[in-house]
């Protein structure tokens, strides 16, 4: 009788461990998807801010991502706040949820691409987000 109870207890412990691992994996996957969604919204907001800036001033703001962040955050001739997020102020550059600065590439006087390096933090591979 003790042997059956020990076997049953072992099975319960193993199944509990497998269930815990599965739940942790689901939680990590959901968290990753939430970061991707948050980044997509952030990039949409930045895109809108850049387009509004161009409409207001006739060109896009120039400089590195830190300078562009400051310009969109109010450091412009009219002190207009084009983008008001926790990532867009005078001291913090536009960064994605994985702590990598966004890449802004102007492709013409009226167009640009906006890129996040994605979860792995490296530009130029399959997990990049491009808008």
Description:
By secondary structure, the protein is mostly helical. The protein has a single domain (39-130), classed as Glycoprotein, Type 4 Pilin. The protein contains two helices and three strands, in the order H-H-E-E-E. It has helices spanning 2-57, 65-72, and strands at 103-106, 112-116, 129-130. A three-stranded antiparallel β-sheet has the order 1-2-3, covered by helices on one side. A hairpin with a 5-residue loop joins strand 1 and strand 2. The longest helix is centred in the first third of the chain and has 56 residues, at 2-57. The model is unreliable at 87-91 (pLDDT under 50).
Give the topology, please.
Blueprint: H1 2-57, H2 65-72, E1 103-106, E2 112-116, E3 129-130
Antiparallel strand pairs: 1-2, 2-3
Question: Which properties best describe this structure?
Answer:
single chain, 131 residues, mainly alpha, Glycoprotein, Type 4 Pilin, three-stranded antiparallel beta sheet, 8% strand, elongated
Q: Which CATH class is shown?
A: Alpha Beta
- Strand proportion, as a percent range, falls in 5-15%
Order of helices and strands: HHEEE
The strand line-up of the biggest sheet is: 1-2-3
CATH architecture: 2-Layer Sandwich
The CATH H-level superfamily is Glycoprotein, Type 4 Pilin
What general outline do the C-alpha atoms trace? elongated
The largest pleated sheet is described as: 3 strands, antiparallel
Unreliable sequence segments: 87-91
Helix content: 40-55%
How many angstroms separate the termini?
65 Å
What is the residue-mean pLDDT, rounded to a whole number?
83
- Quantity of strands, as a count: 3
| Rg, Å, rounded | 23 Å
The total count of helices amounts to: 2
Structural class: mainly alpha
- CATH topology-level fold name: Glycoprotein, Type 4 Pilin
**Number of individual domains:** 1
